[in-house]
Write a structure and sequence with these properties.
heterodimer, A: about 200 residues, alpha+beta, Umud Fragment, subunit A, 8-stranded antiparallel beta sheet, 3-stranded antiparallel beta sheet, 11 strands, B: about 170 residues, 2 domains, 7-stranded antiparallel beta sheet
Chain lengths: ~200, ~170
């Protein structure tokens, strides 16, 4: 028993130390993640098992630029990770097309969107009743929440699992995607680009 | 002059470099172990401010933070949690959870001046947090329910009072 332990211990120690180094590196420097779903095509294609390099240095000071592709925890489910493009920073004014409203991003929040604008089965469509109500009540956060809750109980509120655009606190950010690293024929930089004419920055 | 270079060549550079490398590796391993335990298992936090009186002192308390329960989703009503502030991601604040997703929370809008109260339903994936000292706390009454993903740990023990009374 003691001999088996003595034999296995160096390997176990190697694995534990490697795990510690790997975890620390993934938390401070960069890690690799994969994409699932179509909300970011054509930039990132989920069907080809693409792997992306997610860098963490942006989290030291939460210093993001408009147009970055970011990885974040979903505000609806903390176990789910989303990959979206960061469109607007705190203080910017953004035009939300489906609600015909213009909103200012509050302090500490940002606006993220998927690149795949054609994917229409998403939570931008609230349903016929709430469309008009939410346009009127765009400034009042709590009443908005109450209306959405009431409508979801009545079954009039449509939610989907992959959200296309939403306003999230910057604290949910988990990193920034800089490159695609797998498969080899798809290795490339992921660039910043912005949709035209929807943002007015501060 | 050549004596100086001869002495320079006589110094055992290889073994010094080997020693230095193995000690640096040890320090790196220690740092990584401390980082992993601090970020993912259990940590200490120094919390100060008036928003959680009387539970947490104005001048500050050292609290033990459990990171595992928060990650596993085992935060419940009544827990004091450490979370990233939704108004400034560089700040970490301590508040008490008063409502989980789906709960209906009633709160006083302006406790110093009026008795008006409001009721909200906490959306999916969010929690309602409030400071114990409602007269001096910036919490969900001002910025709304916060996503659960902002919670970084659950506070389970106060360490500083143990230190003060032990002596």
């Amino acid at each position: 028993m003691a001999r088996a332990l003595a034999f296995a211990w160096p390997y176990a120690k190697f694995c534990i130390v490697g795990g510690l180094f790997g975890r620390t590196f993934a938390d401070w420097c960069a890690s690799v993640a994969s994409v699932d779903g179509e909300s970011m095509s054509p930039t990132l294609d989920g069907h080809q098992a693409e792997r992306m390099l997610v860098e963490k240095r942006c989290l030291y000071t939460y210093d993001f630029t408009r147009g970055d592709v970011v990885v974040l925890l979903s505000p609806r489910n903390h176990r789910e990770v989303l990959v979206k493009r960061l469109i607007a920073l705190p203080g910017d004014w953004i035009q939300v097309p489906e609600n015909q409203e213009i909103r200012q991003i509050p302090q500490g929040h940002c606006w993220v969107e998927g690149d795949n604008a054609a994917n229409s089965s998403d939570s931008r469509s609230y349903g016929p009743v709430s469309y008009h109500l939410s346009a009127l009540l765009a400034c009042s956060h709590e009443f908005h929440t109450l209306v959405r809750a009431a409508l979801s109980i009545c079954g009039l509120y449509y939610t989907s699992l992959t959200f296309l655009c939403l306003q999230v606190p910057l604290g949910l950010m988990q990193g920034r995607v800089t490159h695609v690293v797998w498969p080899p024929q798809r290795i490339r930089r992921v660039d910043r680009n912005m949709p035209e004419g929807r943002i007015m920055s501060q | 002059m050549s004596g100086f270079f001869r002495r320079l060549a006589g110094i055992p550079w290889r073994s010094i470099a080997g020693d230095a490398f193995s000690r640096a590796l040890l320090v790196a391993q220690a740092y990584c172990a401390v980082h992993v335990v601090d970020q993912h298992l259990c940590s200490l936090a120094f919390v100060r401010g008036p928003s959680m009186l009387p539970a947490i002192n104005l001048a500050g308390d050292v609290l033990a933070v459990d990171r595992v329960s928060a990650r596993l989703g085992r935060v419940e009503n009544g827990d004091v949690v450490l979370m990233i502030s939704p108004e400034d991601p560089r700040k970490v604040v301590a508040k008490r959870v008063l409502g989980m997703e789906g709960d209906s929370v009633t709160y006083l809008v302006d406790p110093g001046n009026s008795d008006a109260s409001k009721t909200v339903v906490v959306p999916q994936g969010h929690v309602w947090v409030q400071g114990d000292n409602i007269y001096a706390s910036k919490d969900s009454r001002q910025f709304g329910a916060v996503p659960y993903g902002l919670i970084t740990g659950k506070i389970f023990c106060r360490v500083s009072s143990v230190i003060f009374f032990a002596s």
